[in-house]
Amino acid sequence: MIKEYFTACEETFPGRQVELRRISLSLRRAGIVTMETLCRMQRENPENIKEIRNIGGKSAELIAVICRQYEDDSER
Is the overall model pTM greater than 0.85, yes or no? Predict the structure, then answer.
């Protein structure tokens, strides 16, 4: 789930807690509730992520990093 994974990422990205929580909320409001869905969106058409309300370029870059981390963790 998005909320749980982004909360866990707060340790990996200290100082970005507020941004991570805001992104998580925006994604959930847009109906994206699983990391698998988010990562698939990131792979297939990352520009669509920027169309989500309150997600801009910097947030999209952070989402890309988080998705790479999630996929790396899933492969282990």
Answer: yes
> Residue 41 has which token pair?
């969106």
The pLDDT, as a whole number, for residue 9 is 94
How confident is the model over 8-18, as a mean pLDDT? 93
Round to whole Å and give the CA distance between 63 and 76.
20
CB 24 within 8 A of CB 6: yes
pLDDT above 80: residue 76? no
Contacts of 21 (CB under 8 A, 6+ apart): 6, 7
CA torsion angle 26 28 29 32 (round to 10): 110
Output b/e per residue, 25-43; b: 16+ Cβ within 10 A.
ebbeeeebeebeebbebbe
